[in-house]
Amino acid sequence: MDELNDYWSDASCPSKSGLGRWEKVWCTYGTCSNLTESEYFKRALALRAQANLLSILKRNGTVPSTTRYYKLKDIQEALYRILGASTVVECNRQWFIFGDYQLYKIHICISSNAKSIIHCPTKKKSINCGSQVKFLPFDPRELPVTTSADNMPANPIKMPAATDMDM
């Protein structure tokens, strides 16, 4: 339960409990898996650990910066190369219409038995992204305190609600 709160919480006030989000994800996706609720979320967290997105981005030379731009295609290819499956990269813009595109979320799809990462079954491979994106620095205080061997945060990417993804 602690790990679910750390990586799949619901940040809306006044509660940081993810129960509402977990219920929605379970009802939408988990019930198709033939797993118990507990096993479904355990496997989802295990796959999350396998897909260390910050490490993948760093190995590709994509590091947080206020000035650098990265080719969306390079990010997508690096993710595909390491994960072995297509993903959906989501961006947002700093100033709505005129701002730079910035990396916002990376959606990873998993098999119905929650045992493996699979190609995302959508034609869209990006949402609201230009061909060049920024990966802006983030506040490390928002990340879990555990670190990996290379002294990087231990895969601090939070799991979005699957229902947030418009495919």
From TrEMBL:
<dbReference type="InterPro" id="IPR036430">
    <property type="entry name" value="RNase_T2-like_sf"/>
</dbReference>
<comment type="similarity">
    <text>Belongs to the RNase T2 family.</text>
</comment>
<protein>
    <submittedName>
        <fullName>Putative Ribonuclease 3</fullName>
    </submittedName>
</protein>
<dbReference type="GO" id="GO:0033897">
    <property type="term" value="F:ribonuclease T2 activity"/>
</dbReference>
<dbReference type="GO" id="GO:0005576">
    <property type="term" value="C:extracellular region"/>
</dbReference>
<dbReference type="GO" id="GO:0003723">
    <property type="term" value="F:RNA binding"/>
</dbReference>
<dbReference type="Pfam" id="PF00445">
    <property type="entry name" value="Ribonuclease_T2"/>
</dbReference>
<dbReference type="InterPro" id="IPR001568">
    <property type="entry name" value="RNase_T2-like"/>
</dbReference>
<dbReference type="GO" id="GO:0006401">
    <property type="term" value="P:RNA catabolic process"/>
</dbReference>
